[in-house]
Each structure stands twice: as structure tokens, then as C-alpha cells.
Amino acid sequence: MSPIRWDRAEDGVVTLTLDAPDSSANTMDAAFQAALGETVDRLVAEKETLKGVIITSAKKTFFAGGDLDELIQARPENREQLLTTVTDIKRRLRTIETLGVPVAAAINGAALGGGLEIALAAHYRVALDTPATKLGFPEVTLGLLPGAGGVVRSVRLLGLVNALTQVLLQGQQLRAPAAQQLGLVHDVVSDPAELLVKAREWIEANPQATQPYDAKGYKVPGGSPTSPSLAGFLPALPANLRKQLKGAHLPAPHHILCAAVEGLLVDVDTAFVIEGRYFADLATGQTSTNMIQAFWFDLNRINGGGSRPADVPAFKPRKVGVLGAGMMGAGIAYVTAKAGIDVVLKDVSVEAAEKGKAYSQKILDKQVSRGRSTPEKRDALLGRILATADAADLAGCDFVIEAVFEDTALKHKVLAEAAAAAPDALITSNTSTLPITDLQAGAGLPDLVGVHFFSPVDKMPLIELIVGANTSPEAVAKAYDYTRAIGKTPIVVKDSRGFFTSRVFGTMVMEGAALVAEGLPPMSIERAALQAGFPAGPLTLLDEVTLTLPLKIEEQGGGAAAHPGIAVLRTLVKEHDRTGKAAGKGFFDWEPSKKVWPGLAEVFPPNVDGLAPGAGNDPIRFKDAQDRLLFIMAVETARCFEEGVLTSVEDANIGSIMGIGFPPGFGGVAQFVDQYDGGVAGFVARADELADKFGERFRPPALLREKAIEAGSLREALA
Ligand code: NAI
Q1: 440, 471, 495 — which closes off a domain?
Q2: Taking 50 as the threshold, does the pLDDT of residue 595 lie above it?
């Protein structure tokens, strides 16, 4: 059966229904490509008697996009074949839009990537407004660009700047009304039955339809790159992009920018050729392989169950208790209530609890004032949060999250109190440093699991679940289901010092301090990190978490006392009173009024005796610095695997990107090892080199040296 159904009505309107047999979604696979060819041939053959064409779908999504199973395999030697494929698809879509017959797309569900590209080849688009109907080009988030005409058409329809900033460069997914406002769709309906009616009405009214950009004298909104208005603005685009990427070398945004600008300087068909070449470059490169692996395959596996213990029935949280309404508790209450779950937010006084609830009010008020929510929705959400000081109100909760001060005795007390008040609830803790096994024993609980949120709670997508020695599989599964219920992504980690994320994060920031000790200027260290793709440099991050934190951990016997970075922190804190951002000075001077990272040109390294400027521009040292930040995280992750702290590469990859800022272009910290030049063996050789030069902390463990090399990758070694 063909994935494109052909239904010709008596009046000459053909409805093409995208409906891949034996599949839940339509993708641009070989069967679809063949069907597209046949369908277009038939349209051409019958065009004299056709009145119009409607493209719609029988699936929940309109069309899912490229076949990522195939795209992740693309290597430089497949370039020509890939070019032939996209050229072919583009030629077919171009034939449809130049047939001389009006073509309408009736978008019944998500049209992302290839789905939107098909829709853009129609002359008219009507979309059904449902929460699931999202339109956009998420390709950039997978290291790709829309290569089936998406760049060429969106730029011509929306104008260069709008297309780049609103759809192409950030992978935004728009609801139907927003897409209409932008000009991506013409009409929006709320009743599914109206979709085809609208499409037919439009065909009746527009027998002569063509694409606007095929009309004589068409002017691209905002002008062409040679028009004075845009020409003056063009040189700023690459600079803006670099600023947005903070200097990171991610190929996709750069290629999108080039394809968009160059495509506007030529005719449509030549623009397709240019777009195709940039697409093939990206698709056959390592970065897209890494990003597809992480953001499609690994993330989907986690969100579909991942490290959740199987065979435990699904859990649907209904009433969640949150102990402590401080920074974390307030955020946890908000994200939980936002998911439609009732929340009991408990603190030492009603005032303190109300203060935590006010955090939700503040966020919601802002959303209402910006038109992104309604007063009714705000009030309903606030109505789900009960602010209280009475533990008895926890009665009836099925899940409790403790988020009081990081104080062992206090935690023991409130955990036991909650267990007594809500006997049917699973009790969990958001502790960031205390061992779960000890907390469970100290509080005398039958079960306990760590639910480690990241700050700010409403923005950070990751939750690290901590499994203690006496945590049951049921508890892990329930915590997993809670995490998914609030729309966040869980990774599962064994109880140990620093768990996974804080432990690996710690090695990276301390490496930054070690580089300072060796005389590399702070600015160069930050630049090295940003160019590697970290969202922030190690010294900025140390300033944010405070320089006193690693010192405290070291004093408690946690950090390696001999770490060369410790001496630098001690000097800065003890001799110069530079403790970090909150105090206005750490590695850098901070202006308290600036909430966002001000950029290197604006923060000056302190003039501290003993922090020699060093040979900052030595390219070898710069490359070493970059590698050291990446390698120290990867080697420490391998140790986590060896110790059983981590068990899945998916958790390592996604946890490292979403929790601690590992550069996304490498696809995560485990993928970094597997994709290194020369494979795991190449990684081990370079790590050994770093160990010989800079210290044993870089020495790769046996898991990498033996098992992973033998298996061909860390992923295979752990499978
Ligand atoms: P916070 O100091 O902002 O809030 C703690 C709250 O607990 C205060 O409102 C306090 O009044 C309340 N509290 C104290 N005794 C209580 C009791 N008997 N019953 C109910 N509430 C009580 O602290 P924050 O930053 O929210 O941290 C809370 C927990 O989350 C800590 O365990 C921390 O380690 C952990 N955590 C913190 C992260 C962060 O970035 N701040 C990240 C992840 C976890």
C-alpha cells in the first residue's frame, strides 16, 4: 500500500492523504520518496482536468520529517547519494507548486521539519489548533538544516531576518496561532471537520494560485540582501550569531545563515542547489551524528522508560507534598502544580510557605501580562497549591519531596514527620550532597529515593534520581513517573559522593582553577571553554557556585587535597576575600545589577598577585586547556561507570548536556569518547598524553583502556 493515498472527487479535487502503512508516523523514508515520485507523475498526467490538490494526513502528526535512522548513518562517502535524494524530493515538491493547479495543505497535527517543508510547497496552509499541532524547523537542534526547501521557502515567504530568528536558527516549535501571526500558515481552525472544508473553499476561490515568490515582481519581505535596507544589516548577522553561540563552533547555525543569505541572491532553483549542498555537509558531518544520537535516540529512550525499573506499574501522582518553600521548594511546587497536580507546600510558618507560593504567582503574573497565559489559568494553578505550616496537611499525599536546608538532623526530622503524616506517600529528598542511604537510615524510613532538581527548577529540564543501598525499584519507578508527569527528563544514578552531575561538574570547574595555577589568564580559560561549546566557562561557574564551596568540600575530606586548583581558590578566598559572584568579586569582578553573564569584554580578570598573566596566546596551551576541560569530565564519567554510579550511556549523555552544560555538539560526555578521532583508542591515547603532562587525574580507567577499546565503543561496552 502506498504511503500517499489518492482520492479524486468528482469535481476534480484530489486529496492526497499521507498515511504510511504499519507505522504510527509518516517519515521521508524510501517508500515515501517512491510514492511521492509516483504521485507527482500522476498529478502531472492529470493536471489538465484537476481543479485542485489537498494534502493532509491520516496520522496524529501531519508528517514527522526526515528518517533519522538513515540520517545518523550518513558519512562523507554518502554525500553524493544524499544530494541526489534531497534534490529529487525538492524537484517533486517544486513540480507540485508549479503545476498550475491550486494546492492546499490541511495540517491536522504537528508539521515539524520535513512536515513543514511539504506544507510550505503548498500555496495555502490551514492548520488545526491543538496543543499537539506544532510547526517549525527543529533541524538546528539536531545539527542539521531543513534540506528539502525549508530554508529557501521560509526565507522567501517570511523575509530573511524573520525566517532566521523566528524559525530557522533556534528550532522554535510554534502553535498554530503563532505560526499564523508569523505568516507560516494562512488560516487556523479549531474543529477538525473544518480543515478540509476551508481547504476546499480556498481552492474554489483561487483557481489560479501560484507561490508568491513565483509571481512577477515579487518582493521578499524586508528586502533582498542587495537592497540598501538589508545590505547595511547583513554584516551584523554573523557577528550576532557568534555572540548568541558565545563563540562556540556549531556548524548548523552557520550553514543555515549562509544558505539563507546566498539563496536569496539567486533564483529559486539555484537556491535549492545551495541549500542542498549545505545540508549534505551537515548531514555527513560528525556534529549532526552526535546531536541526533543525543537529542533524538538517547533522549527518546530516556523519556520512553530508559533506566526506569521495568515491571513496576505506572504511577500517576495526584497530590504531592513539598517540604521547605525556599528557592528549590518554591520552584518544585510551581512545576508540579503546572502539571495539574495538587501541591501541599509546607514550611516552618504560613508566611514562609506563602512566600514560596508567591514565586508561582510572580511567574504566572508575568505570563498573563505577556499574553502567554490567562487569569483563569493562573488562578487555577495557584488554587492547586496549599501553603501551610501544618504537617497534618500532608495527609493524602502520594508523593513527598523534601527540600529544607541542607542539614542532616533537620532532614531526619522532617522526613520522619512527613512519613507519619502521609503514610501512603513515597518519601523523596532533593538533597544535593547528603548520601541517600544515610538519610534513609537516619530518618528510619522503609524507603527513600533522591529526586535531585537543578536550579532554576522551572527552566532546568533534568532531574537526577538517586538510588540508595536500600531504595526499592518501586520507589525509583515512582520517582521516574513523577519526573515524566511534570515534563522533565530523569536519569538514574547510584548514591555516591556528588552523585554523577555534581561530581563531574566539580572536575571541570576545578580544572579551570588548575589552569589559573599554571598561569593561563582567566580570560583565555573562559574563551577556551566557550569555543569548545560549554555554555559558560569554569571560572564563571566557580564564581557562581562560590569559591568557598570546593574549599568546604575539600576540608570535609571530599576533594583531592592535592588538586592544583585548590591553592588558587584558597589564595583568592583567604588572602583577597574574593569568594564569588554573590560577593561581587571572585575570579572576575561582577556588577551586581547584571543578572546575565556580561561577556568577557566586560568582566575584567582581577589583578591579584600570584595569578601571573602567563603566555595566554600560546595555541598549544589553548588547545590543551580546551581538551583538559572536556577530558577531565569524560574520564571522571568513565570512573562513574566503573563504580556502577552510572549504568547507561543515555543517562550520561543527556545528564551531562542538560544538567552540567557539556557541549551539545559532542552529543554528551559518553558520546565524546566514542566519536573522538581514532575512536576510544584515540581518546585513551590523548588522555594518556594529558596524564603524562598534567597529572594522573587524566589517566583513563580500565573500562576505557580494555573493555571499550575491545568493544569498539563505550556504548557497546556497556550494552
Ligand atoms: P533555601 O534555604 O532556599 O530553603 C530552605 C527552606 O526550608 C526555607 O524556606 C526554610 O524555612 C525551610 N525549612 C526549614 N525547616 C523546615 C521545616 N522544619 N519544615 C519545613 N520547611 C523548613 O534552600 P534551597 O536552596 O531551596 O535548598 C533546599 C534543598 O535543596 C537543600 O537540600 C539543597 O541542598 C537542595 N538543592 C539545592 C539546589 C540549589 O541550587 N540551591 C540544587 C539542588 C538541590
Answers
A1: 495
A2: no
Q: Which of 549, 523, 536 is nearest to 606 (CA)?
A: 523
Pair 26, 65: CB distance under 8 Å: no
Q: Would you call the peptide bond into 21 cis, given omega within 30 degrees of 0 as the criterion?
A: no
Q: 74 φ, ψ to 5°?
A: -65, 125
For ligand 1, atom 1, which residue shows the shortest CA distance?
326
- The ligand 1 atom at the shortest distance from the C-alpha of residue 455 is 40
Cα–Cα distance for residue pair 501/383, rounded to 1 Å: 34
Q: Based on the fold, state whether residues 344 and 410 are members of the same structural domain.
A: yes
- Residue 341 CA to ligand 1 center (angstroms) comes to 21
CB 73 within 8 A of CB 24: no
The H-or-E segment that residue 491 falls in is strand 489-494
Q: Relative to the CA of 349, which ligand 1 atom is closest?
A: 11
H-helix segments, 27-146: 30-46, 68-71, 79-97, 114-120
Minimal-distance CA residue to ligand 1 atom 9: 326
What grid cell was written down for 503?
Answer: 561530581
Ligand 1 geometric centre to CA of 477 (Å): 25
What SS3 state is found at 392?
helix
Q: Which amino acid is at 149?
A: G
Residue of the nearest CA to atom 8 in ligand 1?
326
Q: Which residue range is the domain that position 456 belongs to?
A: 319-495
**Domain check: are 265 and 405 in the same one?**
no
- Ligand 1 centroid vs 549 CA: distance in angstroms? 17
- pLDDT per position as a tens digit, 335-386: 999 999 999 999 999 999 999 999 999 999 999 999 889 999 999 999 999 9
Residue 291 lies in a domain: no
- Do 453 and 373 lie in one domain? The reply is yes
Pair 382, 364: CB distance under 8 Å: yes
C-alpha cell, 359: 514565586
- Cα of 406 vs centre of ligand 1, distance in Å, is 6
Could you tell me the distance, in angstroms and rounded to a whole number, from the CA of residue 411 to the centre of ligand 1? 10
Residue in 471, 401, 479 with CA at minimum distance from that of residue 441: 471
Grid cell for residue 658: 542538560
d(CA 526, CA 521): 9
- Residue 256: which H helix or E strand, with range? helix 251-264
Do 258 and 238 contact (CB within 8 A), yes or no? no
Domain total for the chain? 3
396 alpha carbon – ligand 1 mean position (Å): 23
Residues with CB under 6 A from ligand 1: 323-329, 346-348, 352, 403-406, 410, 414, 430-432, 452-453, 455
State pLDDT tens for residues 119-160.
999 999 999 999 999 999 999 999 999 999 999 999 999 999
How distant is the alpha carbon of residue 364 from its chain centre?
23
Please check whether residues 523 and 440 belong to one and the same domain. no
Q: Which residues pair with residue 320 across a beta bridge?
A: 343, 399
- pLDDT tens figures, 581-593: 888 888 888 876 6
Whole-number Å distance, alpha carbon 323 to ligand 1 midpoint, is: 8
CA distances from 423 to 317, 394, 416, 471 (A): 15, 9, 10, 17
Sheet of strand 342-346: strand arrangement: 385-388, 342-346, 319-323, 399-402, 426-429, 449-452, 462-467, 489-494
* Closest ligand 1 atom to Cα of 404: 7
Residues 6 or more apart whose Cβ sits within 8 Å of residue 462:
454, 488, 489, 490, 491, 501, 654, 655, 658, 659
Its pTM surpasses 0.90: yes
Report the residue among 328, 388, 394 best suited for mutation to probe ligand 1: largest number of ligand atoms under 8 A from its CB.
Answer: 328
Opening angle at CA 274, ends 263 and 675, nearest 5: 125
293 found inside a domain: no
Helices (H), 304-349: 327-338
| Residue 441 belongs to domain with CATH number | 3.40.50.720
